[in-house]
Design goal:
With 266 residues, this protein is α/β, with parallel strands linked by helices. Helices cover 43% and strands 14% of the residues. It has 9 helices and 5 strands. A hairpin with a 2-residue loop joins strand 1 and strand 2. Helix 3 packs across helix 4. The longest helix has 33 residues.
């Protein structure tokens, strides 16, 4: 055909390569835009694995290596790549309550077993605390509270914020902190017929789901913000819980959000 049209073959190859380069550049630009959008919507938390899953939902198949290269080009660094200070554990109480949960973290009934823990948050120049309740059925944060004191009242407030019938809760598992094992919480759990379960002394693995949730909570929320007032902390905490439950995908749930997992299961 080049001979018939009296066009050098080199011209054909030049235009063919140019067209391929233009198509590749357009594809690369589109992919960069998609990755950047997914990363920012994840609040700078997703790495290559979760971004790959989100791209697959858009019918885009890309290797984790290519995603990593593009993230490096765009200067996108996940919050999880930064090392943070780990606080020292305080001595636990000697309560006789057994570890009824026994690391059975996979549950098939909604709101059947709840786990919880506490963490600290700097507000202005003082420490405040956050309590979260997590449903083992779908890893959803079903209750949350924030306040200036690390006490039973903070835990009770988080329990009271749960939207659901608390008589359906069969078991409530925590570590051996005095905030969880006290008269107020005993009365509250007994009122709804909820059995208590405590981790073994000095064994955080017995409450692994709560520990993992709090690790994510600290990296994705606490370390990324500056709080000036308790009201600001409470407002942004509510926003984070909504994002965590409705938008953030979880590897444990097959890369679904807790709400998506619950809707699919029920």
């Amino acid at each position: 055909m080049c001979g018939v049209l009296q066009i050098p073959r080199s011209s054909y190859y030049y235009h063919a390569r140019k067209r391929e380069d233009d198509e590749h550049q357009a594809e690369e630009a589109d992919l960069q835009e998609r990755i950047y959008k997914i990363f920012t919507q994840s609040r700078n938390n997703y790495g290559t694995r979760k971004i790959k899953r989100e791209l697959e939902k858009q019918d885009v198949t890309v290797s984790k290596r290519r995603i990593g290269r593009i993230m490096k080009q765009l200067g996108l660094v996940s919050n999880y790549t930064v090392a943070y200070y780990k606080s020292q554990q305080k001595p636990s109480n000697e309560a006789e309550t057994a570890n009824v949960l026994n690391r059975e973290f996979q549950q098939k009934q909604e709101l059947s077993i709840l786990v919880s823990d506490l963490t600290y948050v700097r507000v202005a120049k003082k420490w405040h605390y956050v309590c979260l309740f997590v449903d083992l059925f779908n890893r959803e944060i079903v209750g949350a509270s924030a306040g200036p004191n690390k006490d039973a009242a903070l835990v009770y407030k988080a329990l009271s914020s749960i939207q659901g019938n608390l008589t359906n809760v069969r078991l409530f598992h925590t570590d051996r902190g005095s905030e969880f094992d006290n008269q107020l919480m005993r009365e509250a759990t007994e009122a709804f017929g909820i059995q208590r379960s405590l981790s073994a002394k000095g064994c955080p693995y017995d409450n692994a789901v709560a520990e993992a949730t709090y690790k994510s909570f600290k990296i994705e929320f606490v370390y990324q913000r500056t709080f000036l007032t308790l009201e600001q902390l409470q407002l942004e905490l509510g926003d984070y819980v909504h994002w965590f439950n409705n938008i953030r995908i979880h590897q444990t749930l097959g890369y679904l959000t807790p709400v998506e997992f619950k809707q699919l299961a029920l």
